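Example record

The entry below shows one chain as it appears in the dataset: sequence first, then structure tokens.
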Amino acid sequence: MINNDNLKPWYPYFAQQMISSNLAVDDNVLDSSSTSNDIRVITWQHQDKINVLLICQVNEARSINLHGLTGQLSFFKIDNSISWKTPQLQTGVINSQNTLNLNGYTVMLLQTESQAPPSPTPTPTPSPSATPKPTVSPSPKPSPTLSPTPTPTSTPSSPNVIFADNFESQNFNQWTNTKISSGETASVVRYNFNSGLYSAKFTSNGGGNTEDSYVYKTISESEVYARSYIYVANGLPLADNNDRFYLTELMAGTQYLAGVGIRHNNGVDKWVLYARSGSGWIGPFYVSSSTVTEGQWYCVVLHWKQSSTGGVVELFINGAKVQKITGINTGTYGKATSAIFGLSSATGIQNKLEIYADACTISRAYVGP
């Protein structure tokens, strides 16, 4: 289990460490199950702890919910978010009621204290079947009250909302069209969602050229807020300075007006904003107050306002305004005629990118988290 190159532990060492120190002869194996073939689970009681071992068998992000467990859970895991060249055991604490995001191939051990008997009166040791059955599910915990499943729709929920899609229709039919370059993919998937049961998945093969994988909606607006929830599953950190890709962009005809994305600058991946002033470009404007990493959902809002002298371009991350450009000429090309969501103008990318988007909304007023 030791790497001969540097005499340090290899990933199988950490897998053995997690299990061997928490499993003994005569430990009770408890009933548990997974509703996904991509996730394997086994549960047992060792001394005063319940142990749940999760194994993600696919190299794709998965979001799961746990049932039958309560309170805080300690975790120990290894996954491919850390290179095999520098392996390490990741540890922490999670809330059992929160969605658990797995970043591709993962071996993860969850631990919780066994529940004490309800009274001090001595009672026989409960059999394994008396312990609540832990269940791993890729979908949110159902409500105890049965209700009809809402019909997926893009109907605006308020007068200011022009268009909204959370991909519960399981397709891109509500959008004007898609743009997918050779080697890239765009699809609707039932995992790694921010809300509902579905999200949009956009991938790039990292070919190094300019690559696109996105959906877009035709609009005609002099002021627009474009909101989406974004999750980067794979591809960070970017390799070289100025490697970049965009997640939301606004256009007037064939001209780009403004966009927000991720760009590698001085060795760090940063949120970046660009815009037109007149016929020229201004930016890139980097965000120093908000970092960007894999394995986390971000609420990203791009605001653009048309004016020849008082144009505005703003960026909001998770409800906080992190960039604001004012007093520029955003009127040269007229109204915004399309809004892009997904993976756009990926330039110089050498890694395979995997991006998820959910709850995409186009509005005339701010719409945040």
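Notes for this example: Residues 161-363 form a domain with the Jelly Rolls fold (CATH 2.60.120.200). Residues 116-132, 139-155 have pLDDT under 50 and may be disordered.
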